[in-house]
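pinning this so it doesn't scroll away 📌
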Amino acid sequence: MAAPTRIRLVYGALAVATLALAAWFLVWSDAPAARYARMPCQYRAIYGASGPVGGVVLGTSRAQHGIDPARLQEQLGSGPIVNLARGGRGPGQLRQMLLDLDEARGIDGPIIFEYSPEDIAFWRDEPLYYQYMPNEGQRLRLAALADDWRGKPREPLYSRVRDTLAHVEMRFDTGIETLLTGAWRANRGQGEARSEWCRTGEWIAPNAGENRQLNRRERAVRRRVGDVSRWREQAPNPETAFTVNQDLQNAVVDDVIALARERGIPVLFVLMPEYLAEPYAPAFLDAFERRFGVPLVVPDAALSGDRGRFLDVFHLDRAGSADYTDWLAERIRRSS
């Protein structure tokens, strides 16, 4: 055999081997142990126990720290409730966790989904906008990447292609790190879930920095209405829930509603308490219900005005979490 032919065969074999390795790697990175390598508590809550759950909480760190699943389970007299909420999430990640939980264990009770009505500025600063975090691609199944196109109806085609390729690149980058560091091994052979609440720390009282944040909010309210006790007189939040940057979250809301109806279980879309928050305009709440066919649950105003129930402006402390969980349980009972 001539030397050029042998060289072509060698290079051809290397190309085939490289493609096969890449295909194997992408399949491996789709496994839950790899996708949840940096979310071990969420992995345990989904895969570390068997049997249907009595409910699930999904959202940001506000819901992560503000809804006590054990207390909610006791109030509702249901099966185990898991709180999978996580700070710095994107809607696609929340949907993925919901689908993984439903596939692994089944869901018999309410889905509680924290809706983010604000078109938050830092989302727009990311290369993948539409309420994305850049590293979200490592946690989505590969099949979910193409489906995300449906949630970006106003994004140009070149941007959709860019986003999808960036997700695949992120899957390779983080997957290689996960494989080489062995981080995925922590999710293998897990026994019964140690915790159904993926909360970090005790969150009992504000520290100095958090107190300064609370003080700044009080000063801002005084500038607007003259006295903290009149905080409910603030102008409503600006309407941003149906801007282009919210398209993906709203598509996920449609998916969650469809899953809940298919399973015959209730779904609640909630706004989490915020200290001395501006009120939500009735027109916005009406628009949400018209768009989705379900109401948006607004937190009790009395709780939002109680500084002693907040760790910082955006997060409830342990006492606030207990109060909000009790209040939410009553809303769930009324809606059932």
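📌 and the second one:
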Amino acid sequence: MRSIKTKLFSLAMAVSMVLALAGCAMSAPSTVGSIGGVEIPAGIYLLAQYNSYNTASGVAELATGETASDVKAVLKATCTGTINGEDVTAVGSDYVAQLTTRAIEYYAAVEKQFAEQNGVLDDTATAEAAKTADSLWSSNGDLYTANGISKSSVEAYLLNAQKAKVLLKMTYGPDGTSPVTDAEYTDYVNNDCYYIEAVQFPLVNYSTYSMADDDQKAAIMATAESCMAELNETATAETASSSALYTAAMTYVPKAMAAMGSTMDASQAVYYAASQLYTPSDLSSYGSDEYNNLTDPLDAAGMNHWTTIDLGTTILVARKIDPFKTYTVEDLDSMYDLLTSMKSDAIQDELYAAGAALDHNLNSAAMNTYSASKIKKERLNLKIQPGAALFAPGFFVEEGPT
């Protein structure tokens, strides 16, 4: 049996060690090292890791009963998705690590190029970042804090995204190093986009949130066909037909709503008419099994010809027209930000590649301190939906599988 003296000596040693450690001002690392000479703050690393975890949780093969909020399960699961344009299958922890590295490489490339090219953020960009940070912090501040992410890190991320937008313009804008030409814009609009005029007839009663039954749907389809017949007389020009389009909506949409037992003023019905340029990203949501539910019927009808399209929850009376009969390239770019639509993928790919090529001076010990196993999915009463990113998709967030 140990003597009382030995026990007291051991206790004294333990106390002295605690006091010594307290005097060392120990703290978690403020950075995880640098890439290309760009310091990677711990908050940015944690944010990148959290977003990467959420991407991984959406592609993880989880056992019955396991969820995307089960951090241990996700990090042990097999994840299959696309990273850097390649199909990747890896254990969850490795998958998160790959995505996180890719994200901080991108962050570093943006910061480095922005500084080297003397980029400037205008007041609008910085104000937008600050406002969005305030909003995000107001709704999810407890969750960010639980994951070691400060409000200043949130704003730094948002400012990085704004810098990436500036680099896009500095590269492909009118005064950029490789400006997009009018001919390229025209080719993009003509071959990759659709300018569509449409009147929408909902198949959902928004008063009761019930779907139209077969009889109601038949009545709505008949109303849509009457609308199409009118537009075939009043909107046959090759140019945009806003006036005729809105008149048709005011006449026929209230009738369609009445078929479902709902009422609508003509003044409200104008919101069910629209003329819009649909970019490839817009159109992708309508496609499945190599058939696009929106564009294929329009192609079958032919340019300038009205047709009806059943999209499941709505019926459209629509036609495709040539926007250049009404607008110039400059008009369309100002209305739809064609530059971003055309070149955002290209600038992202360039920045990802540039970041990967930079010298890496990362601190493995610091990164181990911020292990993905410490991620928190809940804080107080806040819950995150499986696969949801901590922030809205943007330049910094790695997308899921394609």
